[in-house]
Amino acid sequence: MNSIRMVRIEDRLRLMIKLIFLVLLKFVLLLIWGVSIWGIYTLLYDRYVYRVKAWFISLKEQSTVGMCIYSCIDFLIKLCLITYGTMVVLAGFILAGAILVLPLLMILRLILH
């Protein structure tokens, strides 16, 4: 009886350790995802918006319609860059998952078994 109870306790502890590792792994991946999207978004936005910003500012200073056009184009550029940044980050995660996460999970499996 005691050996069965010890095995159950050991299985429960292994399960808790696995859950903790999985939660930490998901948190780290979510943090990397957020930072990557923010970084790619700011880099692309700075690169593409500053090239045509002088033309937009001249439109904005000339009329209210120019301000509306400026705001619409700025919003569309931000939306496109967020979408592009998300696609790049997701592609990176697929590659990182294949290259890094699977070997780490195999190592964890060997350690825990």
Task: Record keyword descriptors for this entry.
113 residues, mainly alpha, 97% helix
Secondary structure: elements and pairs:
Blueprint (H helix, E strand, L loop, with lengths): L1 H61 L1 H49 L1
Could you characterize the architecture of this molecule?
With 113 residues, the chain is an all-alpha fold. Helices cover 97% and strands 0% of the residues. It is built from two helices and no strands. It is rod-shaped and about 85 Å long. The model has no long low-confidence stretch (mean pLDDT 76).
Summed up:
The chain is mostly helical and 113 residues long. It has helices at residues 2-62, 64-112.
**Shape annotation:** rod-shaped
Q: Assign a percent range to the helix content.
A: over 70%
Q: What Rg, in angstroms, do the CA atoms define? A: 24 Å
Q: What's the story with the biggest beta sheet?
A: none
Please, how many helices? 2
Mean pLDDT: 76
Distance between the termini: 23 Å
Judged by helices, strands and strand pairing, the structural class is mainly alpha
